[in-house]
Design goal:
alpha+beta, L,D-transpeptidase catalytic domain-like, 9 strands, 35% helix, 23% strand, disordered N terminus, Transpep_catalytic_dom, signal, peptidoglycan synthesis, peptidoglycan L,D-transpeptidase activity
């Protein structure tokens, strides 16, 4: 009787263990498709602009296919909720991308960044772009950035790099800030792994893609000029 009891108990334990593993998986598999299929088929205020950006038929009417295309864009760039609605933040992001593309290899065509200071890092908050120039000659960029959000805006004006730390750790935000180059009371260029178009923005720093931040680190030095102008959309 003892042997039989032990075998039954062992089998029951194995069955219980398998059940504990299977039940959460069943729940996850059952709910995931519903979440992925959730799509807002309401026509948004920027429907036509968003359709044109995505290469969709521009008819100003939301379809399920439109919704899924918008939803994919939102998911890729961290726009929440990623429901496929052609709203303000989605179009603002797309419009910024269009402005960046239009800048081409002449981001300072309007001559808003000084050309009489030698080597200088320029930051255009409106287009969310940065580049390095020497006089009027473009040396690197333009590349996309992610600047301060509403309430913690990146401050405008003439600055100078005053401190650099290749492996900086922010005690204020408890995050890593690789290739940090500080130019204004704690605001700095530094690398981040977030999408450059991830809203709402940084805590004031100029976030950069890792390769771009590394290049800035190699090209700039303490005392180099930084000029920040414009206004980030939504701030």
């Amino acid at each position: 009787m003892k042997r039989i009891t032990r075998r039954i108990g062992k089998r029951a334990g194995v069955t219980a263990g398998l059940t504990a593993l299977v039940v959460p998986m069943t729940i996850a598999l059952g709910t995931a498709p519903a979440q992925a299929a959730s799509c807002n088929v309401t026509t948004g205020p920027y429907q036509k602009q968003v359709e044109k950006f995505l290469g969709r038929t521009v008819d100003g009417r939301q379809s399920l296919a439109d919704c899924k295309a918008i939803q994919a864009f939102q998911s890729k760039h961290g726009i929440t909720p990623a429901a496929g609605y052609a709203g303000t933040i989605t179009w603002r992001t797309m419009n910024t991308m269009l402005q960046q593309k239009a800048a081409g290899t002449n981001p300072n065509a309007a001559r808003k960044c000084p050309t009489n200071k030698g080597r200088i890092a320029c930051v255009d908050l409106t287009r969310q772009l940065t580049w390095i120039q020497d006089g009027s000659r473009l040396k690197y960029g333009p590349v996309p950035v992610r600047t301060g959000k509403d309430g913690t805006e990146t401050r405008t004006g003439s600055k100078k790099i005053y401190w650099r730390n290749i492996n900086h750790w922010s005690t204020l935000y408890n995050v890593s800030m690789p290739y940090a180059q500080f130019f204004d009371r704690g605001q700095a260029f530094h690398s981040t792994t977030k999408s450059m178009w991830n809203p709402p923005g940084s805590g004031g720093c100029v976030n950069m893609r890792p390769a771009d931040a590394k290049k800035y680190w190699s090209m700039l030095r303490n005392g180099d000029d930084v000029f920040i102008y414009g206004r980030k959309p939504g701030t």
